[in-house]
Amino acid sequence: MDTTGMSEEMLKLFKMMKMELEKQTTTITQNVTDTLMRSLEDKIQPIIEENRNLKIEVETLNRKIKHLENMNRKNNIIIHGVKETEKSYDDLFTIIKNTLKNINVNIEKFEINKYHRLGRKQDGKTRPILITFTSQQKRAEILKHKKQMPQQTYITEDFSKETIEVRKNLQLQLKEEKKRGNIAFIKNNKLIIKEKSEAEKRKRKSSISPDNIQRKLSPQCNTEKITNTAPSKMHKIDAFAYMRSRSFSLSDKHTQQNKA
Fold first, then answer.
1. Cα(208)–Cα(226) distance, rounded to whole angstroms?
2. Which of 253, 213, 207, 242 is nearest to 230 (CA)?
3. Mean pLDDT lowest for which of 107-111, 178-182, 237-241?
4. How far apart are CA 62 and CA 50, in angstroms?
5. Are 14 and 6 in contact, with CB atoms under 8 Å apart?
6. Are 74 and 136 in contact, with CB atoms under 8 Å apart?
7. DSSP readout, 144-172?
8. Which sign does the torsion angle of CA 93, 95, 97, 103 carry?
9. CB count, 10 Å around CB of 123?
10. pTM of this structure
11. What is the DSSP letter of 111?
12. DSSP state, 217?
């Protein structure tokens, strides 16, 4: 708007009106923005709450799935390194039976729920054997003797990929704790640490009597060498002779007092 030719009073009035309009515009804009934001928050809040609940539900379901997966693998073991010479399902059982017999574990068919090679057959590659037992006792017996397996073959527990990754990291921590002298082991995918008591950590040193210590100064340096020497023999004293000498000394003492 052209303000040329306006009087000074009209110019001041115009500026005041312009400032007031700007204030009102700012106020209206802020109110409209606040109203829209409150409206959006009211609409978004239930969605945010629903999303939070869904996340909690998904986490719960994942934990249940992992638990069920671990339960399904609870009676499983995997034998690695046993050559694929079988031509039938029965041949594979014979191989399993003979393999376990080498570690002094006898197995019968009724003790196994299922067994098979893992993965597709490939030239130059030996597939591991997955075995599911009908009871945990037989599985525990095999794991107890697994260190007796021949070279190039070994037995492992059947874990999911996530569990394997977790236990891999725990193995590193396990080595560190054992280096520190602590008793440590992995149980239920957790590292259990039992610190040794001070009595177990300290080695008992044979006590040295002060009477049996002979200190010698080394001629080359001012260090003390402590050596054990045999204690000097005690002089045997006749009790009656001691009492007689004691009574004589007392009588002499009284005699000297009377003379004085």
1. 10
2. 213
3. 237-241
4. 18
5. yes
6. yes
7. HTGGGSPTT-EEEE---HHHHHHHHHHHH
8. negative
9. 4
10. 0.51
11. G
12. E
